[in-house]
Write a structure and sequence with these properties.
heterodimer, A: 281 residues, 2 domains, B: mainly alpha, 14 helices
């Protein structure tokens, strides 16, 4: 059935292409709406019926986001926090993933189940004690206030993904290293690491996305203007009466581009993380 | 049973590096703990201890002042106050119903999308990239985007209703439409995630089973229900488990899109707990809400432990 040769227009207009088109519309239309709205002038943004093709195009909203609102600061904060947290997760996660994947440790199974449970635990349950602890340390409104919890919350899933990749590395490789008398850390560094690189990309992109998009902790721990991340910054744009959608969407486009590019470049690893890492286990 | 077989297939790969001597094995185990220690201690310090502390806090009278907070006595009053409160019962019912409906719709839509993409010969990579965009989007931005779409005077939704003569509804202003609108925003963002997981599961299904079914003259519909669905069950179970646990912590979307309203119509458990702690400074009550939510999630985890086990594989 599926291999039946189609001729003429049937080759292009069949159930599959029509459904694909519907999927593209379903996902694409809201995205289209966000992007064109970021180019509408504030006056045209609130006309009824709305402009479906904005005219004239305006980039003033982008200027507002960076000048009137401090989007530049939020972007910098998000970048610093996300990059450092992801780095911490990858270093600790690779070592732990190697240990839990390849070394004969007792109670490994229980540990992995507990880690999995932590990775799906609702953040709300931890907000209060962490808030009080951070306040006690005078760390509210600081980079470490988010770097530390972000790293801790994303480590379990990263360990899990990395451990699954480690399982697939042929064991002869590290035995060679051991016979050559290399130290354990050296073995991990020069033999395991290159092999586990796809897993590290996968864990990295998941951690990056999670930190980049996190809202609840950022809202609770870092509300002062100088330490807001992108989600908190955008949620605080405007006044209770006025929501400056044009500015919000220009900031949104700027915030979505880096993560979009990153996910596009590493899409192979994202998909393998959602699948082989998660499903095949 | 299909799930168990996936585990045994993994067994050779997951077999530990058994040394020729016990000494070697012990040495490797020690090394393992040394390597795992930084991560485990870090995770325990930042997650496990706060969980325990949160439970303790929910059982005591907590007073917050400018300089700090004090906890006195042991009390069940936080819980009795929470459990006896109709707002909490409503938030629980809302969160459960919201989770069930969105996850169900996402599962159906995600499976349909995956079935379409599986038959797609050209451009599947581009479709994957498109699917990943909503997944990687900041939820706050998603909420603002749909807030603009639903806006009552100049939003595109009311313009569409107007064009077909249905007046211009303020969907976020009334309870049931507000809940439904929020579900749509959520479904738009998370269906792609389900679709990708299901698609990956579909691609890995053995082709010969389908050939056999076709030879037996099985129709497409019955092939789907009798072969595809049972074989996909571990994949679907995993997707559902992740989505259910995630949806249960629902916070960003109602906080930004509706502020939990109109009234308390879209107040989820997480919004309720957050408001109790950081708007009303009732840390004991907030901790009770948070802890009861966590207990429900934990219960969910235990119920789906089988799925967890399949993920980890049987070792030791």
């Amino acid at each position: 059935m599926r291999n039946r040769k189609r001729t003429g227009w049937h080759r292009y207009f069949n159930g599959v292409s029509l459904s694909t088109f519907l999927v593209v519309l379903f996902i694409g239309l809201p995205l289209y709406w966000m992007i064109i709205s970021s180019f509408k002038s504030p006056v045209n943004l609130t006309v009824d019926p709305p402009q479906y093709f904005p005219h004239p195009l305006s980039v003033s909203n982008y200027k507002y986001a960076f000048v009137t609102y401090d989007f530049g600061i939020y972007f910098r904060n998000s970048l610093i926090i996300t990059v450092i947290a992801t780095g911490l997760v990858l270093v600790m996660g690779t070592l732990a993933g190697y240990a839990l994947g390849r070394l004969p440790m007792r109670g490994k199974f229980t540990l992995l189940v507990v880690l999995l449970m932590i990775s799906v635990f609702p953040e709300i349950a931890l907000i209060a004690p962490l808030y009080l602890l951070l306040r006690h340390l005078d760390w509210l409104n600081s980079y470490q206030a988010l770097i530390i919890p972000y790293a801790a919350f994303n480590l379990p899933f990263a360990i899990w993904i990395l451990r699954n990749y480690m399982l697939g590395i042929p064991k002869e490789m590290e035995e060679t290293g051991r016979i050559d008398g290399a130290s354990p850390l050296r073995t991990v560094w020069s033999i395991i690491l290159p092999q586990a690189l796809p897993g590290i990309f996968t864990a990295g992109i998941f951690c990056f996305t999670a930190c980049w998009t996190e809202f609840l902790m950022a809202l609770t721990f870092n509300i002062s203007n100088n330490f807001r991340t992108i989600p908190v910054g955008i949620s605080q744009f405007g006044t209770p009466d006025i929501t400056p959608y044009a500015t919000i969407f220009s900031a949104a486009v700027v915030a979505t581009v880096p993560i979009g590019i990153l996910v596009f470049i590493f899409r192979k690893f994202v998909i393998s993380g959602l699948t082989s890492g998660a499903v095949k286990g | 049973m299909a799930s168990v077989s996936t585990v045994t297939q993994q067994a050779p790969a997951s077999a530990p590096l058994v040394g020729r001597h016990d000494v070697n094995r012990k040495r490797l185990a020690r090394m393992g703990w040394a390597f795992a220690a930084p991560a485990l201690i870090f995770v325990a310090g930042v997650t496990v201890f706060p969980i325990l502390y949160s439970i303790l806090m929910s059982l005591r009278n907590v007073t917050v002042s400018g300089s700090g907070f004090t906890m006195t006595g042991i009390t069940g009053s936080n819980y009795s106050a929470v459990l006896g409160n109709s707002t909490w019962r409503y938030a629980l019912a809302f969160t459960v119903i919201y989770t069930v409906i969105t996850v169900f719709v996402e599962l159906v839509l995600g499976t349909l999308i995956a079935l379409v993409l599986e038959r797609l010969t050209a451009g599947r990579g581009w479709m994957m990239a498109l699917l990943l965009l909503p997944w990687s989007m900041i939820t706050v931005i998603n909420a603002e985007l749909w807030g603009y779409i639903y806006e009552a005077t100049y939003g595109v939704l009311q313009a569409m209703f107007q064009a077909v003569g249905l007046g211009h509804p303020n969907v976020l202003g009334t309870s049931t439409p507000a809940i439904a609108s929020m579900m749509v925003a959520d479904i738009w963002k998370t269906t792609p995630f389900v679709a990708i997981i299901v698609l990956a599961g579909l691609v890995m299904l053995p082709g010969d089973v389908y050939e056999a079914a076709e030879m037996d003259g099985s129709s497409g519909w019955s092939t789907f229900w009798r072969i595809t669905v049972p074989l996909l069950r571990p994949t679907l179970a995993l997707a559902v488990m992740f989505r259910v646990l995630q949806a249960f912590g629902l916070f960003d979307l109602p906080y930004v899109l509706t502020g939990g309203g109109p009234g308390t119509a879209t107040t989820s458990l997480a919004v309720l707990g957050y408001d109790a702690m950081f708007k009303n400074l009732d840390f004991g009550g907030g901790a009770a809400v948070a802890t009861s939510t966590a207990l429900l999630v934990l219960l969910g985890c235990l119920l789906s432990l089988r799925t967890f086990r399949v993920q980890v594989g049987k070792e030791n």
